[in-house]
Structures
1.
Amino acid sequence: MPYYFAQGTIPPKRHIQFRKPGGGLYSEQLVSTEGFSDAYSITYHIHPPTLVTAIDESYSVAPEIAISNNAQHRSLQGFSVKPQDDFLLSRVPVLVNNDLYLSLAAPRKSMTDYFYRNASADELLFIHEGKGVLHTMYGEIPFTYGDHVVIPRGVTYRIEFETEQNRLFIVESFTPFRFPKRYVNHFGQLLEHSPLSERDIRTPQNLVTHDEKGDFKVLIKKNDLIFPYHFATHLFFVVGWDGCHYTWSFSIHDFEPITGRLHQPPPVHQTLEANNFVMCAFVPRLYDYHPLSIPAPYNHSNVDSDEVLYYVDGEFMSRKHVDRGQITLHPIGLVHGPHPGAVEKSIGKKETNELAVMVDTFKPLKLTRQAMEIEDKDYYKSWME
Ligand SMILES: [Fe+2]
């Protein structure tokens, strides 16, 4: 989905002899998607990327489903998820279906003694709090508050935090993330009316080649199981690569909102999509400017999508008592709308400072056991207040 990019040293042609200064050949790897039919990159390694020494016993990290058929508005206090030192252990799945898993995480420490690879899903880490660097064989992606870090499936990574207080909202998608088709021309370029442009996309930088041998553990997640693999070499020992398959990021703060004289529908807030779901960013913006406009949204029946809103910062004009890190779920089959008084209160307001990430799924979401532990049980009655 991103454009062609190259880092480090690569030979003038694909699949030809490419020799190290000492004379030996670099190992070439093709990283390809949809078989050989979609985005790919070619990487050049100091050692073969295949040197497996051992595989430990696999273990399950499958979400524990508490409610598989949800027909109720829900609200979860995301920041009630307990911080944990380890990045993988800190990840708490809350809403899941066959297209995606939504998780919350408050990891305290960097990954130091293992690498991680999700073999089943592309991952998007939304950085609500914290700062650090994502390391991959493609290079480094520094991240901070508001970043969406996109990690295609199969990419081995190691996350390093500069901070102890980190809050992440994680989307695991079982199909690749892409920009909405209406924003992309047939050359793959983002069009003039897209809220994001190529200038907002951050590509890997600082390619560091780790020529290290030893015991390097990679936790490979596949179909809800973790397979602990051991390799004889460091995993990031690339001298150069090129192609269109790599990690990348953009900031919610670079999303340029589309506004109008009348209330604009949620698709103007869209950032990304994958099969059976879309993602949006609600960012600070000027309100509608028709003299009789009502900035608060109308009541809304999402006939065939579950709406998930993850509240980041600012004040939300349509709701009362919203906390940072709160998640609301307004499912298929029910009407939701502004809280009492919110419509009148919004009239005459000029701008909003709200910041939120939305995920709309076209198939119903299930709630996990951990989601029930952080649920506000009376939320479904909150329109009666
Ligand atoms: Fe809605």
Note: The first strand starts at residue 5 and ends at 8.
2.
Amino acid sequence: MRPLAELVPQHVLGFDAYTPSKPDPLLMRQYGVSRLHRLNNNENALGPPESAKQVLAEFKPERAAIYPSGDSYDLRHALSAKFDKDPDRFLIGNGSCEVISSVIKAFCDKGDNIVTADKTFAVYEWVAAFSGFTSRLVPLAGYAFDPAAMLEAVDERTKIVFVCNPNNPTGTWWDNTAMEAFLAGLDGRCLVVLDEAYREFVDDPRFPDGMELMERHPNVAVFRTFSKMYGLAGLRVGYVCAAPDVTEFIRRTHIVYSVNSPGQKAALAALEDDREHILATRRMTAEAKNLLIRTFDCLGLEYVSGEGNFIMARMPVSDTLIYRLLMRRGVMVRTMSSFRFPNWIRVTLGARPVMEDFSAALGDVLARLPGAGA
Ligand SMILES: Cc1ncc(COP(=O)(O)O)c(C=O)c1O
């Protein structure tokens, strides 16, 4: 028999699959703890808005036998009403990750490339890599996306520039002026994806509104998600909004029926009842950030904090060692080596008691490191 590996393209053979974390019960047994605070995925500790919780509680199990709306019809119409845009300009995916994959499939051909930063959300780069396209990764400048260097990286084979605004994991962001200057410099040469996964955490008038930008710049596509602010990460709902022809192209490579019924219904309910929820989440996030900044200051640790529900800090030893030591104290953080930030960890900003547990655990871990306090 022919070795099956011979059938697999080189760009797939050379790609290392991502390994997600194990289920909580297994991890708790492995690390000998009776509870685990998950601070690794930037989830919302408040969960979804009340209206979404209610819709989920009322979901009839019999409905599970019925396929969902194949194109999330009601949810697209709710987004249309909220943003005052044609419903056909929205495309819903199984998380915005799925739509990232769809946009790359729609626009990239053999020999093409995408441009993004070297230290950002890795899915853009991964999808490009396992699909056989090059990623031109531009180094961050002072923890932020570098607009001038990104413009320089764009060539005639660049199809998409991915701008994570605010950036995961640094929280840095381009303001209106920087964004407009970048788009003017690019002059419509390729598609610009603004990944606004953390947009709802930002309360600064200088933050660019992608939904408005795309009306003046038809090469701008905005990606948003219900996983972060809306607390629906477990149901996997995200979307793209773009100019009608851009959405139309992406639709061709996008799997239909990929968004489940409870997810569609809960997202719709969350959207229509988000005001108080957003304010409460922003309050919790701001309080958590102050608490962790005080902790890092006390411990003499360098940190980077911007917008979004996360903060990064540099550890005096390897991030994987800190991860293991924190896990033994029931706290799970994100190691940042995979984001090309060796020795850094990223911590989700959440409820105060959990932030206090994290701070105590980190203080304890660092105090017990060999040489600490010597
Ligand atoms: C910047 C960014 N974009 C997209 C996503 C993916 O979101 P979703 O859960 O909608 O796939 C994440 C999740 O962590 C993210 O940080």
Note: The pocket of pyridoxal-5'-phosphate is lined by residues 42, 95-97, 121, 164, 168, 195, 197, 225, 227, 233, 238 (CB under 6 Å).
